Amino acid sequence: MTDPKFYQLTRTERLAWLVAHEQLSAEDAAFLAQQQPLSDEIAGSMIENQIGQYQLPIGVVQDVVVNGQTYQVPMVVEEPSVIAAANNAAKMVRLNGGFQTHQQQRTMLGEVVLTDLPDLKVAQNWVLANQDLLMQIAQAAHPSIVKRGGGLLAIKVTVVDQTFLKLALTIDTQEAMGANIVNTICEAIAREVQNDLGGTILLSVLTNAAFGAVTVATVTLDPATLATKQLAGNVVAQRIVQATRFAQVDLPRAATHNKGIMNGVDAVVLATGNDWRAIEAGAHSYAAQSGQYQPLTSWQLEADGRLVGRIEIPLPIGMVGGSIGILPAVQVAHRLLKVTNACELAGVIAAIGLGQNLAALRALVSDGIQKGHMALQAKSLAIAVGATETEIEPLVAQLVQAKHLNTATATAFLAQLRHNNE
Ligand code: NDP
């Protein structure tokens, strides 16, 4: 008999496996095993009007190879098929040498916008002539980020719609996502500009179009590793290219194409305590920057028949700040993942997004998405209709054979199962 696969183990056995393979400390495994809720003190101080806690499972994608390093990637997600698909992609990509990633730069952008200025051209020239002063204001507004080697790098000033004076601030936030750092600097600069020029401060805030933190991941695949039971690998590869081309010219498809990518991206962003709304806003604005909403990935065949995939996605990820230092489960997730800086974390997340896209496209262009989802959906349905732990397995076995996978069928099968067991 072969050893059971990781997904076939019980949760306790999975934790023991991770400890035995030195991926997780015994203390962290014990923490996850106990599933302790947040203390009232932490939960109550994180948000306004806190009335309870909300649970989601943490899972792991095994052995994701990125830039030659192997990661156990934590994911927090409610959708049953996401981790299975990510694991499937990680395995295919491992056979092909892993993902390559890079983040060329890591800066955040802020916008300071003033209106009601008597002469916009004069105002624009004043900003151009007073860059040093504004740099000093920024340093004084957030001295600690300057000490850490970051802070305001550049100011671009433009007149927008003959109405608005816009200062676009490029800011190095080091290991933080940086929303608070950027907002603090923006507000200080806005006050200075208004003091000197008059007008009204309309807004001064970070933009989530974090195009200064674009991360690229690529993978090159031997088509043979993509073969399914029905289709040869080179056919799967060609269809993946075609499906991506279709997403480039069909907005309804592009939206779903990108949603599949975000299935993986958001799950890691959430597990690592980052702001997934910021990542979503950044990703979709990047996809729409040409004026036509585009897929975030591209897939192309090389002359030798190999399939090359690439994702470009803004990932303003932090290793500090926000809830990262507060939530104990997030800290365990970081210790499992073992990334050492924000750039490395962004690379892993981009790789997961590209892998998620590969798994989804491969399934779509071959067996269709439902086949792989069926067993997982059946399990969710079994739980939803009230199956107990011992009833789930036999009920799922029946449901995957059923003509209609729905609540009525699941309820009827469960009643039958209970009747048979009486
Ligand atoms: P924080 O203000 O929570 O944390 C950043 C702080 O961490 C820095 O100011 C710095 O403070 C400290 N720090 C410690 N080590 C480092 C390091 N190596 N590099 C950089 N900073 C370090 O978070 P952010 O400014 O990152 O803001 C993120 C939060 O803002 C998230 O919770 C997000 O949800 C929220 N937010 C998002 C918005 C958006 O996306 N539009 C808008 C508003 C808020 P010190 O130097 O003093 O130690």
Automatic annotation (TrEMBL):
Q: What family does this chain come from, according to its entry?
A: Belongs to the HMG-CoA reductase family.
Keywords linked to the UniProt accession: NAD, Oxidoreductase
Name a biological process GO annotation: coenzyme A metabolic process
Under catalytic activity, the entry for this protein gives: (R)-mevalonate + 2 NAD(+) + CoA = (3S)-3-hydroxy-3-methylglutaryl-CoA + 2 NADH + 2 H(+)
Q: What is its EC number?
A: 1.1.1.88
Q: What is this protein called?
A: 3-hydroxy-3-methylglutaryl coenzyme A reductase
Pfam families documented for this protein: HMG-CoA_red (PF00368)
GO-annotated molecular function: hydroxymethylglutaryl-CoA reductase (NADH) activity; hydroxymethylglutaryl-CoA reductase (NADPH) activity
What InterPro entries would the database entry show? HMG_CoA_Rdtase (IPR002202), HMG_CoA_Rdtase_bac-typ (IPR004553), HMG_CoA_Rdtase_cat_sf (IPR023074), HMG_CoA_Rdtase_CS (IPR023076), HMG_CoA_Rdtase_NAD(P)-bd_sf (IPR009023), HMG_CoA_Rdtase_sub-bd_dom_sf (IPR009029)
The reply to whether NAD figures as a keyword in the UniProt entry is yes
What is the enzyme's main class? oxidoreductase
